[in-house]
Design goal:
This protein has 16 helices and 13 strands. With 537 residues, it is of the alpha+beta class. The chain folds into 2 domains: 83 residues, Sandwich (Immunoglobulin-like), CATH 2.60.40.10; 368 residues, Alpha/alpha barrel (Glycosyltransferase). The strands form 3 sheets. Strands 1, 3, 4, 6, 7 and 8 form a 6-stranded mixed beta sheet that branches. Helix 3 packs antiparallel against helix 5, helix 7 packs across helix 8 and helix 12 runs antiparallel to helix 13. The structure holds ligand 9MR and zinc ion. Zinc ion (ZN) binds next to loops.
Length: 537
């Protein structure tokens, strides 16, 4: 996609040449640079990048900072055209944020005014949802309106735990980078109102009597790949209440209170009451832990064996908002017994959100043991990410390429951005930009993983509206390389790769590939955070 004039600018070259050339998009030669000698180990063996199988060398043109459109050429090979411009990411930032609007489910549909003729659609999934098991004594007779919110991904399910991650990332973006709160991204609303659209749906997912929160609402099976949202008329079902969904919900609602209190105190109050009610359910059900989705469903499971990290997050947000002792007591005793603090930005591991909430609680004494332990843990986590970044041939801070690797990488960049807020370091900032450059095309597949951005970008995401309209909704981050794809039955990429394919290359831009090329709200959301950090002037 491009670089800002003052940032580092590097291309990775995999051929055996000595020089590289930089041309303007209209073919004027502007500079010639030398490629460095090959990196070698102690025995003089050339280093091969483990994750991609490539021997990479850096074509560094950082000092070149003229604005315009350019490409790099090494002998006959040309890179895609990229830009050098101060605001090179602005359009992308708006586009990545607008995806949440495109993912809207429910009442008003999405209109031509904002979605254009192609992607506008009628209201969808507005029927009442039943509890999946009619014989259940407490919930069996439940039939409620849970319309609204965002479709999770390429499918039309709506799931509370990944939704909580997406909401948390957008709230963190609006809070940490105030300029983002004003960004007009071409939808009907700005970031906080768009996020509220999801929060209002989440409120409907709480059982008003028990305070417990249903894990998800979906049809029994996924809609066909050719069904537009409004054509998917199957009965909606609620899955069981889970400790994960209830705790994530409590965390999100406590956080929402702080974010919306100035804008709409009545709404903020509603969130606060719901958060406390959810916490009551959690204290009344201390043994609720592993979530296993009923076999009734053929939709996403979001199975999660451990709910304690979600409770950790709930306690941290509730403490930050209310300052009540009981939440601090919970945090103190939970953290005291642990050597690792559940690092992760969801959907399964929510510990890093808890850490961030506690570390940014204003009244907390920075010399107390709890603060010091959590901060040390956060900084150690960032340091391990930096170690990985330094070793990698494409400067990717990933140890493993799993389903949704682009999310893991984006989450890791978020950790570095927040670590940089706690203790500023040049390395953190440099590593964040390298992760963004990877997502935007500087990678072993030579493709931008964000639809619509970059000359050579993913065009065939596993996303129903994009497949049906034969055009990708722009601004969506696809899942990316998946080193375990061979175990995924039914994914065409499983047959396109073999044991020898390096993990960073287990990817193809085909729309059947739900395990490398799907899109998700909680894959876009950490990217919004990264772009928010760069947007903040
Ligand atoms: O993002 C999820 C990934 O971490 C899991 O490994 C994978 C298999 O359980 O499921 C992914 O989530 C999918 C969800 O189940 C349904 N909607 C689409 C999600 C992205 O592929
Ligand atoms: Zn819908």
């Amino acid at each position: 996609v491009g670089y800002r004039p003052d940032d580092s600018k590097v291309a990775f070259v995999v051929s055996q040449d000595r020089t590289f050339k930089l041309y303007t998009a209209d073919d004027k030669l502007f500079m010639t640079g030398n490629l460095p000698v090959y990196k070698a180990d102690e025995k003089g063996e050339v280093l091969v990048d483990e994750k991609s199988g490539d021997i990479t060398r850096s074509a560094d043109f950082t000092n070149f900072n003229l604005e315009g459109s350019f490409y790099i050429k090494v002998r006959a090979d040309k890179s895609p055209v990229f830009k050098i411009e101060p605001n090179v990411y602005d359009g992308l930032t708006a586009g990545v944020l607008k995806v949440f609007y495109y993912q809207r489910c429910g009442g008003n549909g999405i209109t031509e005014e904002y979605a254009g003729e192609k992607f506008a659609h009628d209201p969808c999934h507005t029927g009442k949802a039943k509890y999946y098991d009619p014989t259940n004594e407490i919930y069996g007779s439940v039939e409620i309106d849970v319309s609204g919110g965002w479709h999770d991904a390429g499918d039309y399910g709506r799931y509370v735990t990944p939704a909580s991650k997406a909401v948390a990332d957008l709230l963190l973006t609006a809070e940490h980078f105030p300029a983002m709160a004003d960004l007009d991204f071409g939808g009907p609303d700005k970031i906080l109102a768009e996020t509220r659209y999801e929060i209002e749906w989440m409120l409907k997912m709480q059982n008003p009597i028990t305070g417990g929160v249903y894990h998800k609402v979906t049809t029994k099976n996924h809609a066909s790949m050719t069904a537009l949202p409004e054509a998917d008329k199957d009965q909606l079902y609620l899955s069981p209440v889970s400790a994960q969904a209830t705790a994530d919900f409590a965390a999100v609602m406590a956080y929402a209170y702080r974010m919306y209190n100035k804008i709409d105190p009545a709404f903020a109050q509603e969130c606060m009451v719901a958060a406390k009610k959810a916490w009551e359910w959690l204290t009344a059900n201390p043994d609720a832990n592993a979530y296993v989705d009923p076999s009734f469903f053929g939709t996403g499971t979001y199975n999660d064996g451990n709910a304690k990290d979600e409770l950790f997050w709930a306690a941290a947000e509730l403490f930050k908002t209310t300052k009540e002792e009981k939440y601090l007591d919970y945090l103190t005793s939970y953290v005291a017994g642990k050597s690792n603090l559940d690092n992760g930005f969801g959907w399964a591991d929510m510990g890093s959100y808890a850490q961030v909430a506690y570390l940014t609680t204003e009244s907390v004494d920075k010399n107390d043991e709890l603060y010091k332990k959590i901060k040390q843990n956060f900084i150690d986590h960032a340091a391990s990410i930096i170690e990985t970044w330094k070793k990698d041939g494409y400067k990717v801070a990933l140890d493993d390429y799993v389903w949704g690797s682009n999310k893991d990488l984006s989450d890791r960049a978020m950790i570095l951005i927040i670590a940089n807020m706690l203790e500023e370091k040049h390395e953190y900032k440099a590593a964040v930009l390298d992760q963004l450059n990877y997502l935007l095309g500087r990678n072993a597949m030579d493709i931008s993983y964000v639809t619509g951005y970059g000359e050579k970008a993913a065009k065939h995401p596993h996303h129903r509206q994009s497949v049906i309209n034969e055009q990708a909704v722009p601004g969506m981050l696809v899942g990316g390389p998946n080193g375990y794809i061979m175990d995924v039955n039914g994914d065409p990429v499983a047959k396109m790769v073999d044991e020898k394919t390096p993990p960073a290359k287990c990817y193809a831009d085909v729309d059947g590939s739900y395990a490398t090329n799907e899109i998700c709200i909680y894959w876009n959301s950490p990217l919004v955070y990264i772009l928010g950090y760069l947007y903040q002037k």
